[in-house]
Amino acid sequence: MLDSRLRRLTKRNNAITPVDQILLALQFYASGSFLRCVGDSKGVHKSTVCRAIHTVSKELAKLRPHFIFMPRNENERKATVNSFYNISRFPKVVGAIDCTHVYIQSPGGNNAEYYRNRKDSFSLNVQVVADANCYIKNIVARWPGGSHDSHIFDSSNIKGRMEDGEFGDTWLLGDRGYALRSFLLTPLANPTTAGEHLYNESHIRTRNVVERTFGCWKRRFPAIGSKLRVNLKYMQAIIVATAVLHNICRKMNEEQPPDLVDINEEIDIVHETGTNYEDSTRGELISSYFDRLADNHII
Questions:
Q1: Which domain holds residue 9?
Q2: Which of 67, 74, 163, 273 ranks highest by number of CB atoms within 10 Å?
Q3: What InterPro entries does the entry give (predicted)?
Q4: What would the pLDDT profile of 230-274 be if each residue is shown by its tens digit?
Q5: pLDDT for residue 49
């Protein structure tokens, strides 16, 4: 798939082959090593490694529409909803959403401080929607680490698609870093009734797939799990490229690396006002569904 494209892009005499370019990029993704170390292991110069990673990452990122996509038809939507339901009986879920920080070296320049996150480190804040099988279904990888999760979502294409009802009567599950919406359900801050507690428990269990997706993705590709030491202009392509490869690995049933959950990432909570039932969607779901499950001691 990449070979012919990389061959067309290679115009130098005695250039490294497309296969070698791919191997250099994969070694970088899988090790997170300095470019010089990757080059030394293959007997090529650091600049050659840099070009190979940049070229391969761009070409992999172009495959994004083929491997990273939300449900495209009714059958895919139903399959997604059923898979989420089977986790903890939470109905009508089309995706679990969250952000994770990919740490980077300081980009320098006048805008460097935009990339400093709440832990005083430099990063990109990457938004992902995952499905119940830990596939990455949507990704936004362009925001600096100082950006709030809810701001990234409000500026994203997936928000508009959910507002337009593209995926039918479904919703996303997010943590309390997101504002509660009719199409994005968050946990209750102070559950009191049995139904409310059951809602929170089911929500947490179901939404946990996005945390496990982050862990698997970063464990498989330590380049994004440790610190990216490349020029800022290459980072977005590298992140998306590894997301494409993650989904390919899932599709091919590659062995799952051990979970590496981002337990140290803080949630910048969006505080709610009013009662737990202020939002009619969440309130109706609890009263008509989770209260009944609680009465029947289900889940």
A1: 3-62
A2: 67
A3: HARBI1-like (IPR045249), HARBI1_dom (IPR027806)
A4: 899 999 999 999 999 999 999 999 887 765 444 445 555 554 543
A5: 84
State in Å, rounded, how far the first CA of the chain is from the last one.
Answer: 45
Q: Tokens at residue 171, please?
A: 């919703």
AA letter at 49: V
Q: Are 51 and 78 contained in the same domain?
A: no
Q: Are 208 and 132 contacting, i.e. CB atoms less than 8 angstroms apart?
A: no
Reading the block at residue 127, the tokens are 């938004």
Residues 23 and 151 occupy one common structural domain: no
pLDDT in tens, 13-34: 556 888 888 988 998 898 877 7
How many domains does one find in the chain?
Answer: 2
User: Cβ distance 81 to 71 under 8 Å?
Assistant: no
β-bridge mates for residue 100, sequence order: 126
Residue with tokens 């610190």: 227
- For the entire predicted model, the pTM comes to 0.89
Cα 243 to its chain centre, rounded Å, is 8
Is the residue at 236 inside a domain? no
Structural contact between residues 117 and 93, judged by C-beta atoms closer than 8 angstroms: no
* Residue where one domain finishes, among candidates 62, 80, 113: 62
What is the full DSSP assignment across the chain?
Answer: --HHHHHHH--STTPPPHHHHHHHHHHHHHH---HHHHHHHHT--HHHHHHHHHHHHHHHHTTHHHHS----SHHHHHHHHHHHHHHH---SEEEEEEEEEEEB----STTGGGGB-TTS-BEEEEEEEE-TTS-EEEEEEEEETTS-HHHHHHTSHHHHHHHTTTT-S-EEE--TTS--BTTEE---SS--SHHHHHHHHHHHHHHHHHHHHHHHHHHH-HHHHS-B-S-HHHHHHHHHHHHHHHHHHHHTTPPPPPP---TTPPP------S-TTSSHHHHHHIIIIIHHHHHTT--
- 194 has pLDDT over 60: yes
